[in-house]
Design brief:
Elements (H helix, E strand, L loop, with lengths): L1 E2 L2 H6 L4 H16 L6 H6 L5 E8 L3 E2 L3 H11 L4 E4 L6 E2 L4 E8 H31 L6 E3 L9 H10 L13 E3 L1 H7 L2 H11 L5 E5 L2 H10 L3 E5 L3 H11 L4 E5 L7 H5 L5 E3 L2 H4 L6 E8 L4
Parallel strand pairs: 7-12, 8-9, 9-10, 10-11, 11-12
Antiparallel strand pairs: 1-4, 2-6, 2-13, 3-5, 4-6
Helix pairs in contact: 2-4, 2-5, 4-5, 5-6, 7-8, 8-9, 9-10
Length: about 300
């Protein structure tokens, strides 16, 4: 397709500065205080150049190629990554996803960091697509949560988007969410909602509810987005019947792929799935050297 550039990060909705910071920290874990890959330094001549392929070792959905490219290019500015498959595409075992060419030491130094990020993000995208497929045709959208790997939230939420999911709030600052403990501390759902609305009138407010009575109280207080926490499909149907179109409804808790369609059929608007990020296995991707770089 084309060489990967910083512009690709922007197109993904990622902040290049944050991505570089993440990659720098990840490489530092590998290279230690002296910044040296001792094995590559000892075994590979400084002027050797090679071409490598990034190859899928399983079936899944790709995400994070531009992030992986940053790791390679940060290790050595002479490395070029040319993608063959776009993020969000389904890939098959054995498929070549990209070629990477340049100084061999740099390729080997960046290999694990680049693949750690690429495999992780592709795993999140793959898990997300499985949930999206499970509710296909229902109109229900699959949301992520804040149950992300520390330091990787923006990247993992990008991977959710690549897997056709929808991002919920990024953190505690951009959307107010009145959960059960907030309601207890404030003396109930309605007073908690009122306090948030008075303090942050410009922010969207979401309210967690556990039954029909709490849902009614939240909507009567002005809430337009309810998190229906750990409700059975039967109880969700009651909430949907009670609330109608006065608020968007999200089912969360006790969801599995096997029951996703059943929950989606209740009439809710969203399924919120922490497992997209906290339990997604990686998509195995490897780097194979395939010959000398003859381009230079």
């Amino acid at each position: 397709m084309k060489p990967t550039t910083v512009d690709d990060l922007v197109a993904c909705g990622l902040d290049p500065t944050e991505v570089v910071r993440t990659v720098r920290a990840a490489l530092a874990e590998d290279l230690g205080p002296d910044g040296v890959d001792v094995t590559s330094q000892a075994t590979v001549p400084a002027d050797q150049r090679d071409v490598a392929e990034l190859v899928a070792r399983g079936d899944g959905v790709l995400a994070g190629m531009a992030v992986a490219a940053v790791a390679f290019e940060f290790a050595d500015a002479g490395i070029e990554v040319v993608t063959k498959v776009a993020d969000g595409a389904r890939v098959a075992r054995g498929e070549v996803l990209a070629t990477v060419s340049g100084p061999t030491r740099g390729l080997l130094t960046a290999e694990r960091t680049a693949l750690n990020l690429l495999c992780r993000l592709s795993g999140v995208a793959t898990a997300t697509r499985a949930w999206v497929d499970a509710v296909a045709g229902t109109g229900v959208r699959v949301l992520d949560t804040r149950k992300t790997t520390p330091g990787l939230r923006a990247l993992e939420k990008y991977a959710v988007r690549a897997g056709s999911g929808v991002n919920k709030r990024m953190g505690l600052y951009d959307t107010a969410m009145v959960k059960d403990n907030h309601a207890r501390a404030a003396g109930g759902v309605a007073p908690a909602f009122a306090r948030v609305q008075a303090t942050y009138p410009y922010l969207p407010i979401q309210v967690e509810v556990a039954d029909v009575a709490e849902a009614r109280a939240a909507v009567d207080a002005g809430a337009t987005f309810l998190l229906c926490d750990n409700m059975s499909p039967q109880l969700l149907r009651q909430v949907v019947a009670e609330i109608g179109d006065r608020a968007e409804l999200e089912a969360t808790g006790n969801l599995t792929l096997a029951t996703a369609a059943e929950f989606a059929a209740t009439g809710v608007d969203y399924l919120s799935v922490g497992a997209l990020t906290h339990s997604a296995p990686i998509l195995d991707i490897a780097m194979d050297l395939c010959g000398p770089d003859m381009g230079r």
